[in-house]
Amino acid sequence: MPRPMMAHAPAVWIRRTLAALLVALVVGAVLASALGTRRERADFVFTGGGEVRSLDPHAATGIPEGRVIRALFEGLVVRDPQTLAPAPGCAETWEVSPDGRTYTFHLRPDARWSNGDPVTAADFVWSWTRLLEPRTAAEYAAQLWCVEGAREFASGGDGARDPTLLGLRALDERTFEVRLAEVQPRFLDVLCFYAFVPLHRASIEALQARHPTSWGTLWTRPEHLVSNGAYYLAERRIHERIRLAKSPHYWDADGVAMRTIDVLALESWSSALNLYLTGEIDWVDGAIPSNLVGQLTQREDFRATPYLGVYFYRVNTTRPPLDDVRVRQALSRTVRRAEITNKVLKAGQAPNHSFTPWGRIGDYVAPAMAPGDPAAAASLLAAAGFATPASKGAGKPFPKLELHFNSSETHRALAEVVAHHWKQALGIDAKLRNQEWKAFLSAQSSLDYDLSRSSWIGDYADPGNFLEIWTSDSPNNRTGWKNARYDELIARARGTLVGAQRNALYREAEQILLNELPCIPIYSYVSQNLVNPRLGGFDDNALNEPSLSRLYWRDGVELDAARKADKRGKKRAPAPGPINGLRSPRMDALLFDASGGAQGRPLNEEQR
Amino acid sequence: MSERSASSTPSWFRDADYEFAAVQIERLRPESPWRKARERLSQRASVRWSLRFLVFLALLSFLAPLLPLPSPAAITVAAEPAPPVAPWSALGDHKFVPEYWDLNPLDRALVSVRTSLFGKWRTGPWLGTDALGRDVLARVVWGSRTSLLVALCAALTSLVVGVTWGALAGLVGGRLDNVLMRIVDVLFAVPTIFIVIFTLSFLDAPKSAVGEASLLSREQVFFLVVGAVSWLSMARVVRGQVLELKRSAFVEAARIAGASTPWILRVHVLPNVLGLVIVNLTLTLPSVILYEAFLSFLGLGVEPPKVSWGLLAAEGAEALNPLESYVWLIAAPALVMALTLFALQTLGDGLRDAFGVEERSER
Amino acid sequence: MLRFLARRAAWFALTTWVVITLAFFLLRAAPGGPFSSERKLHPSVEAALREQYHLDWPLWKQYLHTLGPLNLDERGWLGDGADPFGGVLAGDFGPSMQHRDVSVNDVLASSLPISITLGSLALALALVLGLSAGVASAHSPGSKLDQSVRALATGGLVLPNFVLASLLVLVFAFWIPVLPVAGFGTPRHLVLPSLALALPFAAYIARLSRAGLLETLSKDYIRTARAKGASRARILWKHAMRGALAPVVSYLGPAAAGVLTGSLVIERIFAIPGAGTHFIASALNRDYTLAMGVTVVYAVLVFGFNTLVDVAYTLLDPRLDLEQEA
Predict the structure, then answer these.
(1) Is the previous residue joined to B305 through a cis bond, with omega within 30 degrees of 0?
(2) Which residues neighbour A504 within 8 Å (Cβ) at sequence distance 6 or greater?
(3) I want to staple A197 with a disulfide (CB 3.0 to 4.6 A). Which of A16, A73, B218, C270 is the partner?
């Protein structure tokens, strides 16, 4: 149907509109970004990976969350950043009864919330009750089940729960008593974890009353969050940054140097590195891609410290032929662990010959498993009735194994190398299966795998933390492996107060584990930190938990001295930051005294 | 349709009119699109070279197991990636280890031919090695297999499903056309990457015993998914062209002259649509190859030790950093990828000109 | 026009429903759930979480709850008698299951403007770069300029965008340190990401507009205009542009969808807190509510933009009839 040919009018109109739209888009976009958020750089900027899952200490479970929460809140005891031993935090002193069942904590008189309220024993009672409340759905609640009445409280129905039956009591404003139902030798270590910090009851309840239809999470927003740590939450932009600002009410505010801290959420390690190299970030924590390890480990700003984590392969012991212990031993004894750590990972990881990382935790020394030996492994496999490269056709062919791992560069490279080892020494074909994270976990927990890549990170420095996952009823076992003697040893160790006896029990248990091998330990982790050399107060420890409140900027003199004292002989790296340093008021006062008054070094002159 | 038009031919229509009509149809009908296309194509050097390059690449990729390359999966745990070595300074050595993944029978046969032909001789690291000491040249050549196969699969799906769908909609028209095209619209609005993630997770189907093969491999999932989304634009384009042809003068004339529908389809519609289809295919292939790279970047790529260009590019992009650039790790896959896509584009351009298809977007 | 829009609205409703349904069932059917993790949750904790998010309900009830403004909650979470979750059709996507502090609406409210800023900037850049390149090369086809523009345009189409982005960072942030490497906040931060996002589309637009211009230039009315003595530039911009714009405009629909997909990569490389990051992460984490949110938003954006493009297209080419098409 021919339509009257329209004149140029609509075309001109549309062209103008289009042009105008284009201009508007560009101007709008630029304006939006310009007006959006212009902020000064924080005193200290770091990244530890992606966005934190939650700032609610009861809902959070991860390591990046922990860094932020420990800066915001302070529990009864905190870990000493150098030794990791429990040190006074919100509690100044405490007593433990001789039977190890009653803990009495004396809170600091000057412990205050960021709104000025005093921190009281009642705050702890309320917070811990909230933690135990099933509706809070806190993962770490189970760690408190050693408290009297806690287990019943957590599993009781809605009506059956009575918080007054819990062994938590505020004896007075500043005295908090905890009674335990079962002995927990490492109770203070447990309490260092961030789930056991106090929460500010009044603000949380008031907010919930005002917004009953909210999801009860409004209180974690910057405008509402009341915390008792060295910092308060100044700003939070989802998937971008969390800004922490120094709290004036913190009891040790004089010892805190950094006035503001930015925690960036970065998905990609490459962009974190790029930002670090341009001086936008002062500390990057994350596994370094294999391409760069060689280069970075030469630099003075790369710091690798033994880390409380173990990398291993789970073996599905319910599937033949993996149910045969000889097969598992053969697989384990052909993995060339030293080659993996020295040639593939290269960042300072150590081959693991026990399940306990680094072969020891504190005064616990782990037993070692049978050493790597391809010939012995081949004869083990032959004894199990399978053909090996040397057996000249005798024995049945070994079925094709599948090795599961979740999508990641490092896991893939490692799986390729291990499969290569098995192929070489035993002629076993392992098919590698790269799975996306949730499918991987689902397959692992439903025992739908042959071999599955795994890792375990300790919450605190204790062998029990690692060995307890292998008991038959542990939800983290996930190999189908059961051993009655092992279960018994672990249960006995759990109730033993004396360290030497407990270690002996753990040693015997681990020896069983290493003979039976429901898991093939591969290597022990190191923390991989890129740290601005100018940064002071950064303590390397096995949990990679430096205390943010102790950080400060060194001035030129101190930086030079520190570099001279560094005997590693690494390549110098740029040390951007305030050339005159940035120290806490207390450190400044000490310096001032030491240098004899006004002739001291210039203080707190920030020049970025 | 043919029955009706035949019987409705009025009785006064004389033989002479048929003749006249036949002459008119011949005039209206363009000369054979094929002959014309061939003539035009052969005139352009760039198209000839592109075609040669693509044929060479296809051969290389198909015959990869036969070539005296190192195995793409053979790991020599080295300390650092090694830079390329000129062929004249290190032609090769006798250290070939046949280390592959599950090859299909044909490839296995090719590998055994290779071993009998070249023995343990293999080429040197002409394009360098990666962080696990694997030969980059071998990986690029073997990687081309995945990338080209994914592309071909997508092409095949869009050919079979897309063309049928679009032609059906265009030919039948009316309500069916409306429904079919709206389905395409709806599918367009569903984010592909979402579908990819879930298809991948479903197909990690549980298996009950060691050694049992899983249902589908990751690559096959790719083929399915990428094919499943690449036919959409093809359907649209084909429908548009069919509609245009239906209304065109020479089809009208043929119909008036009493030609049967199959005859019209075969003589008029098919050749004209085919040109467009071929052009559209050459444009689909690059986008599929890039899509594979996108998936690899997100960590959803092929399973190791298999390789693809996308995986190599994603790994190589990591090596692009200010501290230490292992340029060859990114240069090799990026270059060969760029060349292939460039050749495909040139070929597509040439074909488009040859078939006289207008450049138009995918809608 | 009104009838066209009404029909489009109906199809839009259908599309949204299909997307919601598909996303809902795909998410639930995929192995693993929002609360599976490497360190397995205690069964009682997991049960409590499932109850909070109503994952203990039968599937049909969950579906209705997700879908619509239906008050299926007997009691809210932590506050009795409250209904904290309205459903997708009520514009409330509920709480995120992975980021337990925030609701999906919060996440979208903070990330979507950023993605739209970046996306529209990239589209605008693609149009400007692409059209100017197209015009430049159509000005004198076969010339050196034309050839180099065409080579460049093809170059933009042959490299994966992450390679392109990494190269841009290396060149403009390290070798010639003029732009920030990553981040968001100032206009300078937007230059590299929008460029990396725009280049492939600019390249395609250059090709489209060049071909369109050359074709229009061979038409009779252009010959008339030339006979009347109009300059070549004037002919190009005034007369031929209109005909050449049509394919470009119709390409904007797929281009917008492509920019959205491309932003998944670009946002990651440049650490931009946009919605793209959530797209992959939420699906991989089985964050049911967040994944639903981003998927629905994606579908709405693509559909809306395509409708806009169709309207613009008919205005450019009056021969096309919207009502016929719809």
Answers:
(1) yes
(2) none
(3) A73
Which residue in A348, A364, A367, A311 sits closest to A524, CA to CA? A311
* B78/A contact by beta carbon, under 8 A: yes
Residue A408, amino acid: S
Beta pairing, strands A535-536 & A350-351: unpaired
Are B158 and B284 spatial neighbours (Cβ–Cβ below 8 Å)?
yes
Q: Is C185 in contact with A36 (Cβ distance < 8 A)? A: yes
Distance CA A522, CA A475 (A): 22
Peptide bond into B30 cis (omega under 30): no
Of B197, B290, B320, which is closest to C170 when you measure between CB atoms?
B320
Q: Which residue of A has its CA nearest to C27?
A: A438
Task: Compute the C-alpha angle C86/C87/C89, nearest 5°.
Answer: 115
- Round the CA-based radius of gyration of chain A to a whole number and report it: 28
Residue A200 is predicted with a pLDDT of 94
Arithmetic mean of pLDDT, A416-435 = 87
Establish whether the linkage from the previous residue to A321 is cis, with ω within 30° of 0.
yes
Maximum Cα–Cα distance across chain C: 85
The answer to whether the CB atoms of C23 and B201 lie below 8 A apart is: no
CATH class of the domain at C107-325: mainly alpha
Residue A439 near residue C30 (C-beta atoms within 8 A): yes
**8 Å CB contact of A438 and C241:** no
A424: left (phi over 0), alpha (psi -120 to 50) or beta: alpha
Which residue does chain A place closest to C319, by CA atoms?
A3
Nearest CA in chain B to C150: B346
Q: How far is C253 from chain B (nearest CA, A)?
A: 8
Q: Which distant-in-sequence residues (6+ apart) come within 8 Å of C222 by Cβ?
A: C216, C235, C239, C240
Each residue's pLDDT tens digit, B73-124: 777 776 677 888 888 877 777 777 777 777 788 888 888 888 888 888 888 8
Query: Residue C136: helix, strand or coil by DSSP?
Result: helix
Give mean pLDDT, residues B255-266: 80
Could you report the per-residue pLDDT of C98-149, keeping only the tens digit for each?
A: 888 888 888 898 888 888 888 888 988 898 888 888 888 887 777 888 888 8
Q: Is the pLDDT of residue B30 over 60?
A: no
CATH 1.10.3720.10 region(s) of chain C? 107-325
> Which pLDDT does position A529 carry in this prediction?
93
Cβ(C34)–Cβ(C53) below 8 Å: yes
Q: Which class in CATH covers the domain with range B33-62+135-362?
A: mainly alpha
Helix (H) or strand (E) holding A234: strand A231-237
Task: For tokens 């990569």, name the residue.
Answer: C265
Do the strands A430-435 and A401-406 form a parallel or antiparallel pair, or are they unpaired?
A: parallel
Q: Are C219 and B332 in contact (CB under 8 A)?
A: no
Chain B residues inside the 8 Å CB shell of C141: none
Which positions in chain C touch A220 (Cβ < 8 Å)? 101
Mean pLDDT, to the nearest integer, of B331-339?
Answer: 91
> According to the model, what pLDDT value does residue C70 have?
63
pLDDT band, very low/low/confident/very high, at A491 (cuts 50, 70, 90): very high
Note whether B345 contacts C158, CB cutoff 8 Å.
yes
| CA gap C125, A154 in Å, rounded | 58
Q: What is the CA radius of gyration of chain C?
A: 24
For B79, the closest of A294, A435, A443 (CB atoms) is A294
pTM: 0.86
Q: How far is CA B292 from the centre of its chain?
A: 12
How many Cβ atoms sit within 10 Å of the Cβ of residue A443?
23
Contact (CB<8Å) A346/B209: no
Q: How many residues make up chain C in this entry?
A: 326
Q: What is the mean pLDDT of residues A321-346?
A: 91
Among A66, A47, A59, which Cα is nearest to A460's? A66
Specify which residues A93 forms β-bridges with. Answer: A106
Write the ipTM.
0.86
